[in-house]
Specification:
By secondary structure, this protein is of the alpha/beta class. It is 43% helix and 17% strand. α10 (203-217) packs parallel to α11, α16 (354-365) packs parallel to α20 (461-476) and α21 (517-529) runs parallel beside α22 (573-589).
């Protein structure tokens, strides 16, 4: 007589949840998640654990009888998932954030490990369900960042992307193994054009590769997501076939990406309805939408997919992503909340953390938010028209369908002052999700804070994020460092810049003239290093209001097809510009090769 161990574990929420429950109930006798996986591999569990499960079920107010799991062959993975899904509500919308993976594929938006950790902490504070922390097989640095995030995050699921091959899947499995809740997200292309020209595989070979990848991923976690790259341009019958096969293999979430942003909302809703109905076991898994914004319809298509039956949406903060970007998390969340009468779904996101998260991502990546961007743009709640202003004064709801406060616009509160001490500074950083790794880094950041406090009367949370970002950049990229800068500008005279920098500890000096002080500064830097890089973007953004606000500058350079973003912040915009240019040169110098998968 066999024990249906899969169904037993699923009834307790899966290996991770079961391990947590047992350890909470019996702290003196801890059980690891790996041990529970071994129960499943053996098809049995120790008698002592059977007794504990009975006690645990009793504490939870439900019946447990080991005989109910005996006397039948083990269920298929699809049947197990169908059983566990009975407790899931159909109005629950899972928010899957891929800012750290797909968003990082924006030109020049690569992030350091420390920057990814800061964003991951803020995403957890925001309340996203799944954090796709990266693509583990891309580089050892990516794998290390995912592993670190997996060990830090308490509530959100930590996910790693993997192509449908053994190297990628095993790299992802190792990266997430320390996560309290981990997911492997594997994918392969399914459209005729991709299978023929990119993969050069037959449909049968694609199905076989997908099934093997999912089964391999199940060796590491029960939470496996499968994506059919370029799904919205794939044959729907073939999609139903491959999705049915991966459900049988153990996939629990199925992602239907609009990889090239080709879809339109009406067709997307119909496509999801038809695909779910055609797929064997389609009612036992979570269906997901991942939409790109090439035609400006990523959010609209994502919401259409929700109407069509999707219960997970993959998105990024500020719509960050390669080409025209991805669906914006903030727009999806607020659309489903504001128009609950249409979408009838709930999500766990704390909307008051939307604006702080948007500002953090913008600061770290160097991608400013356009003023008229929905929800998080500076003008999103500004009213210029006299008619609008009159209506707002009489009744805010006349022209506002949501309040600025509801998405976090009131949270950039005064933070610290010039009399604040080191401990208060450290405590505030921790509150913001910033944990510096050494006393040296903390001391250097505190010194910068004191310098800033002497220049700027009021210091806000955004100032601290910019300050720490600037400090981490200087710590990690010390090859070139700004020592001093003097600029001269006079009406009718050619501006000049006199700069001193340190290269590998050796001071170098240069003077140059230019069309303006920024141009002269950049020419002085280039005269020292002759990088040959082409400037693609120069952007200035005020971090907070007021003439004493820090200026945040982004400089995007391209050299040998490598694109980097450099960031700098200072109350003097010329100094901030010099820091940003030097930051970009340091990134070019510290060239790290990474593998980028075709985005799903």
């Amino acid at each position: 007589m066999s024990l249906d161990i899969d169904r037993l574990i699923a009834d307790f929420g899966g290996p991770s949840t079961l391990a947590d429950q047992l350890n909470a109930a019996f702290p003196a006798e801890p059980v690891s998640r790996a041990a529970i996986y071994k129960w499943r591999e053996r098809g049995s569990l120790p008698l002592a654990q059977v007794n504990k499960l009975a006690q645990l079920a009793s504490q939870q107010g439900r019946q447990f009888n080991i005989q109910n799991y005996m006397g039948r062959d083990q269920t298929t993975a699809a049947e197990t998932q169908e059983h566990s899904m009975t407790q899931r509500s159909n109005d629950r919308l899972v928010i899957f954030d891929t800012t750290l993976r797909d968003g990082e594929q924006s030109p020049g938006a690569s992030m350091t490990k420390e920057e990814k950790i800061r964003i991951a902490r803020q995403l957890e504070k925001l309340g996203v369900d799944v954090i796709e922390a990266g693509f583990a097989a891309a580089s050892p640095g990516d794998a290390d960042a995912i592993k670190t995030i997996a060990g830090i995050i308490e509530n959100s699921i930590v996910c790693s992307l993997a192509r449908a091959n053994e190297r990628d899947v095993r790299a992802a499995g190792e990266a997430i193994k320390d996560a309290k809740r981990g997911r492997i997200h594997t994918f392969i292309a399914t459209s005729p054009i991709h299978m023929e020209h990119k993969l050069r595989m037959t449909p049968d070979q694609v199905v076989d590769a997908a099934v093997k990848a999912v089964k391999m991923a199940r060796e590491y976690t029960d939470d496996v997501e499968f994506s059919a790259e370029d799904a919205l341009r794939s044959d729907i019958d073939f999609l139903a076939r491959i999705f049915g096969a991966v459900i049988e293999a153990g996939a629990t979430t199925l992602n239907v990406p609009d990889t090239v942003g080709y879809a339109v909302p009406q067709r997307t809703e119909a496509f999801f309805r038809e695909l779910i109905a055609k797929t064997k076991g389609g009612d036992s898994v979570i269906w997901s939408a991942h939409c790109h914004n090439d035609l400006g319809m990523a959010v609209a298509n994502s919401l259409a997919a929700v109407l069509g039956g999707a219960r997970q949406v993959e998105c990024t903060i500020n719509g960050l992503g390669e080409r025209a970007g991805n669906a914006s998390l903030e727009e999806i969340v607020m659309a489903t909340r504001t128009r609950h009468d249409i979408f009838n779904v709930q999500c766990n996101v704390d909307a008051t953390q939307i604006v702080p998260t948007s500002k953090l991502v913008s600061t770290i990546t160097g991608y400013p938010v356009q003023p008229n961007k929905a929800i998080v743009g500076a003008n999103a709640f500004a009213h210029e028209s006299g008619i609008h202003q009159d209506g707002i004064l009489k009744c805010r709801e006349t022209y506002e369908i949501m309040s600025a406060e509801s998405v976090g616009w009131s949270t950039n509160r005064l933070s610290l002052g010039k009399l604040s001490g080191r401990n208060a500074f450290k405590t505030k950083l921790i509150e913001l999700g910033i944990e510096l790794q050494s006393e040296e880094a903390l001391n250097a950041a505190f010194a910068r804070f004191k310098t800033l406090a002497d220049k700027k009367r009021e210091i806000f949370d955004e100032d601290l994020h910019a300050l720490v970002s600037d400090e981490l950049i200087s710590i990690e990229q010390e090859h070139i460092k700004l020592i001093s800068l003097k600029v001269v500008s006079e009406t009718g005279e050619t501006p000049s810049a006199d700069i001193v920098v340190s290269e590998a500890g050796i001071e170098r000096h240069a003077t140059a003239h230019g069309d303006g002080t920024v141009d002269a500064t950049f020419k002085a830097i280039e005269s020292l290093f002759n990088s040959g890089a082409e400037m693609q973007l120069y952007s200035v953004n005020a971090i907070t209001s007021g003439t004493d606000s820090q200026g945040e500058v982004t400089v995007r350079l391209m050299k040998d097809a490598k694109i980097v973003n450099g960031q700098g912040a200072d109350t003097d915009i010329i100094v901030a510009s010099a820091k940003a240019y030097i930051s970009a040169l340091n990134k070019i110098h510290n060239n790290i090769n990474r593998v980028h998968p075709q985005p799903v």
